[in-house]
Design a protein that fits this description.
By secondary structure, the protein is of the alpha+beta class. It is built from eleven helices and 59 strands.
Length: about 1000
């Protein structure tokens, strides 16, 4: 993955001041919709892997690209993996055996690194995804190898990525970054630039930019800037600041934790003491020098405290146990020195192998150039009091937090030094030190703290693009995992027992993978593994899953719980056959939730939910199969699947069952009008029908959905949909209270169709119809409305979590049709409302009745000729037919091949035979028509068949028209032109 490990050490800090830009990395948001995850599990590449070497593996897919964003399962033997070179060859061989996993060829992946953590016998492996010679930013493949076996993969290869060539040079990009960024008037130094490919979520979907990643440094304002300059246009695509602002024995007296009047005297480790000889005190502050007097400074072998406001403090003493006080140095100097060594001691106990405990640091205190702030840039920096804030060098939590950024950086074995995770890391280190969720009490002079990790910030809904706020998601998750562990062990938060030791170990190990927010749960699980097999759970799986679930991460984050039915919804079905549906019940947290599939039933209705029938499925292990009886052509079927466990557990698909079931149509449909909403808005109009005229009251929008509230992240097809409040700017994705608004189609000419069927793709979230109403109209007549609870409980909401096929009878017979979708809300709860795509209007296909041919035959055994025969449909209107020959595939209309037969005045219901003088193999289609037009389409075994004419010694074709009654009026032979008359309706048969 494109590398943050290679970055020059940046600066992280406590809270943003008002005049220093921070920004955030251009990380994508990865949302999880379980039905879409189920669909992606059936992709050929993953399905092939899961049936072979990856049997038993699970995955969480990137719903935009289809790749396995994180995958895990039983250990896979890779052969010898004792050196980085062996690891590289082993992973490359694994890709070679499973080419569908990455979605790109081997030339598109470049080995980046393989780092080994001896403490856990784990290799952290990275491959960059290369596009036009540049790595994809935070893209590629990451792998974890434990005990010599592959246990986890992350595949972010962006198979569709294409970028133009660079037009700007590196120097031009550096100048553009300096001039267009937030520090345009500052002096920049340490400039460097390298090409990367940025995957960006934009209105049209995923967009790929070839960009120069430019690094510069400024001192005023304080900044280590990372700017992305479009390599073709010079545009500043994004920028962020790696300075993350946090808005005897020798003893020292300092606050225990913060400026609340509670002080303590502790030993000052490693301080330099100079008498007749010199020495550094030990970890307890104990020293030995010659002479009866000496001097000590707040500098040691680990940290040197520097007073920005004046001379550094020193203590002259002639007693064995001198005590630093504010007479000898400022309180910030003494306190910072003590707090840094306290947190270093914590690291030496938790993760002694991490380099942060070994690198020499400077701690700059009493910096009067700002206030209410502190930061880490490879050293520690603390501002003086002012602006309503106390001196940050005197507050332990601030020191712990800033030091935590260095711990994060030096922990990395792979991945990235992510800003949002980094702020969470700083907060977690502070909570580990204090056992308190409140960060830095008395940061402000009235006693208030800066943040609290206890509230449940959730991914992705609470991601706001500000690193301190977003970091609370990770910080809060770790806090809650700690709480779950403590509940399991019966310990209190104040204890440093098993729960504390476990969470600190998991935290320290997870950081080595360099996760972004969306994969922090996965890395905690990997850190908890004790046998190299993630398929059998981990010792603390349930506590980790429960803790992260409160923050939108992990398998228990969904309100639906751990169980999910993996089933692909049925599309429209042909008439005259049974309908089979198969699926599987997945237990996403089997270590915590026991489930044994006992039954799976399909409930269906053919009268819009008035009556329901049940068909029991056949169950085998975790899978099921259920077959509907043959249903009459023209049926609209509503259905859902309900599965039960042996202990009474239940799960349905869709999630809300018959409140908002799946649907499909039985029989063929002829398209009268369709709009996929991609090229334009379809001429749809919308209006506020009731409620106050205020911004957003009429919130219908034609755009790409943004995933806000309960809306989808993407359109069903293409990029655009019509929907209520699609988010962005000041909009939150919810329809407004106490309004009625409606979206309407233009008038649609449905001709003389005797029946009209409306179908569209729907993603609808609306409160129980007892309170809020979502209604579909046809010419101002309601043809569907959302479910209303029968007991006025008011909690049976329609809650689509996937695109579903909605099917309605329009109730019109010919003429013009205007469709409408309406939301009517009360003053209470609001949700995402309507999302609409691929809106279509159909008539039941004539091919299913008047124009159907089901017995067309083309022969294979005649010399020089292909015999053609069929039965003309019985309808009085079917008096014409053409047969079209085509090579390689069937023709679906007369223009797609050679017309070898034309018949008019044919007798409905009569047998027809003809011949094509032809030698060779070809595909034949009979198209039946009449005064109203011709059927278009080809269905093998019905109106289409393959035929072969054999070579004849005589070279003369056989005239088959004389062998049977052809039931014809006027006919013409091979190559005849089709002459039906201009302006006739072509009846198209589209299988839906």
């Amino acid at each position: 993955m494109s590398g943050i490990l290679a970055l020059v050490l940046g600066a992280h800090a406590f809270a943003p001041s008002h005049d220093v830009f921070v920004g955030t990395e251009p990380n994508r948001i990865f949302r999880v919709h379980r039905p879409e995850q189920a669909r992606l599990r059936h992709q050929p590449g993953w399905a092939e892997f899961a049936l072979g070497e990856g049997r038993g593996w699970e995955a969480r897919f990137d719903e935009r690209t289809g790749t396995a964003h994180r995958a895990w399962g039983p250990p896979i033997d890779l052969g010898p993996v004792n050196t980085p070179a062996q690891v590289q060859r082993a992973i490359e061989a694994f890709f070679g055996r499973n080419p569908g996993l990455t979605g790109v060829g081997p030339q598109a992946l470049r080995f980046a690194s393989a780092r080994y953590a001896a403490q856990t016998d784990t290799w952290y492996v990275e491959f960059d995804r290369m596009v036009r010679g540049a790595p994809v930013w935070r893209g590629g493949v990451t792998a974890r190898i434990r005990f010599g076996k592959l246990i986890l993969l992350g595949v972010d290869t962006y198979p569709e990525a294409v970028v133009p060539q660079a037009e700007l040079t590196a120097r031009q990009a550096i100048l553009a970054a300096e001039m267009s960024g937030p520090a345009a008037f500052a002096a920049h130094s340490e400039a460097s630039a390298s090409l990367v490919v940025l995957p960006l979520d934009v209105a049209a979907g995923l967009e790929y930019r070839l960009a120069w990643e430019v690094h510069t440094r400024t001192t005023t304002p304080v900044g280590r800037w990372v700017s992305f300059i479009d390599a073709a246009t010079g545009e500043l695509v994004g920028v962020y600041n790696e300075v993350r602002f946090l808005e005897g024995t020798v003893y020292g007296t300092h606050p225990v934790r913060t400026l609340d009047g509670n002080n303590e005297t502790t030993g000052l480790p490693l301080v330099e003491v100079e008498g007749e000889t010199s020495a550094n005190a030990n970890e307890a502050g104990e020293y030995t020098v010659d002479g009866d007097s000496a001097t000590t400074w707040l500098r040691g072998s680990y940290v040197t405290v520097l007073n920005v406001a004046g001379a550094e403090g020193s203590l002259d003493f002639d007693t064995a146990d001198p005590v630093w006080t504010t007479e000898d140095a400022t309180l910030a100097e003494i306190a910072t020195y003590a707090y840094v060594h306290q947190v270093r001691d914590w690291q030496l106990a938790v993760a002694p192998e991490v380099g942060m405990a070994k690198v020499a640091l400077n701690a700059n205190v009493n910096d009067g150039s700002g206030n209410c702030n502190a930061y880490y840039d490879g050293n520690l920096n603390f501002y003086a009091a002012g602006g309503g804030c106390n001196n940050t060098g005197q507050i332990a939590d601030v020191v712990y937090h800033e030091w935590g950024h260095g711990f994060h950086y030096y922990s990395l074995q792979s991945g990235s030094w992510d800003g949002s995770v980094g702020e969470g890391v700083g907060d977690v280190v502070a909570t580990m030190m204090t056992h308190d969720s409140l960060i830095a009490p008395y940061f402000v002079t009235n006693g208030g703290g800066i943040r609290d990790v206890a509230p449940n910030r959730s991914y992705p809904d609470d991601v706001v693009g500000e690193v301190h706020e977003d970091g609370l998601i990770f910080g809060g998750a770790v806090w809650d995992v700690w709480g779950e562990l403590a509940d399991t062990t019966g310990e209190a938060r104040e204890d440093s027992g098993v729960a504390y030791d476990t969470v600190t170990h998991l935290f320290a190990e997870a950081l080595k993978a360099g996760p972004t927010l969306d994969v922090t749960y996965d890395e905690f699980i990997a850190a908890d593994d004790d046998d190299g097999d993630l398929s059998n759970g981990t010792p603390n799986f349930c506590d980790i899953a429960e803790g992260f679930a409160e923050h939108g991460l992990g398998p228990l984050a969904s309100e639906a719980g751990a169980l999910q039915i993996d089933v692909l919804p049925l599309e429209n079905q042909p008439s005259g056959a049974g309908i089979t549906l198969g699926g599987e019940v997945l237990n996403l947290a089997s270590a915590c939730v026991e489930f044994s599939l006992a039954s799976a039933d399909l409930m269906y209705s053919v009268d819009e939910g008035e009556n329901w029938s049940t068909v029991a499925g056949e169950v085998s292990g975790t899978t099921f199969s259920v077959t509907l009886p043959e249903l009459p052509s023209g049926s609209i079927v509503w259905y859902y699947v309900a599965a039960s466990g042996s202990s009474g557990e239940s799960v349905t698909a869709p999630t809300v069952g018959k409140i908002a079931p799946f649907s499909f149509y039985v029989g063929a449909l002829e398209e009268l009008w369709c709009n996929d909403l991609q090229q334009d808005d379809g001429g749809f109009t919308h209006a506020l029908l009731a409620g106050d005229e205020r911004e957003g009251a009429d919130d219908w929008t034609w755009a790409r959905p943004s995933g806000t509230s309960t809306d989808p992240d993407d359109a069903y097809s293409g990029n655009k949909v019509w929907g209520n409040d699609l988010g962005g700017d000041n909009y939150n994705g919810d329809y407004q209270p106490d309004i009625v608004n409606r979206l309407s189609t233009p008038a649609i000419d449905v001709g003389s169709a005797p029946e009209v069927i409306v179908q569209y793709r729907r993603w609808l979230n609306v409160e129980d119809g007892y309170y809020d109403q979502a209604t579909v109209y046809a010419n101002d007549t309601a043809i569907w409305a959302n479910h209303t609870s029968s007991k006025q409980s008011g909690d049976e909401n329609t809650a689509d979590d996937q695109w579903v096929l909605a099917t309605h009878r329009a109730g019109v017979t010919g003429g013009a049709l205007v469709l409408g979708w309406e939301i009517a809300s009360d003053q209470g709860f609001e949700s995402g409302g309507w999302n609409l795509d691929d809106v279509c209007v159909y008539a039941p296909a004539a091919a299913d009745s008047a124009f159907a041919v089901s017995d067309f035959v083309a022969t294979d055994d005649l010399e020089g000729t292909v015999g053609l025969s069929w039965t003309q449909p019985a309808s009085a209107g079917t008096t014409s037919a053409v047969v079209v020959r085509r090579e390689g595939e069937y023709a679906t209309n007369a223009a797609e091949g050679v017309v070898v037969y034309t018949g008019t005045g044919l007798v409905p219901g009569a047998a027809v035979s003809a011949a094509d003088a032809f030698v060779g193999h070809a595909y034949y289609t009979v198209l039946v028509g009449g005064d109203s037009g011709f059927y278009e389409g080809a269905v093998a075994g019905a109106n289409a068949d393959e035929g072969t004419g054999l070579a004849s010694d005589a070279g003369e074709p056989i005239d088959l028209t004389s062998r049977t009654g052809c039931g014809c009026g006027t006919t013409s032979g091979g190559g005849a032109a089709l002459s039906i008359g201009a302006g006739l309706l072509a009846l198209r048969r589209r299988r839906r």
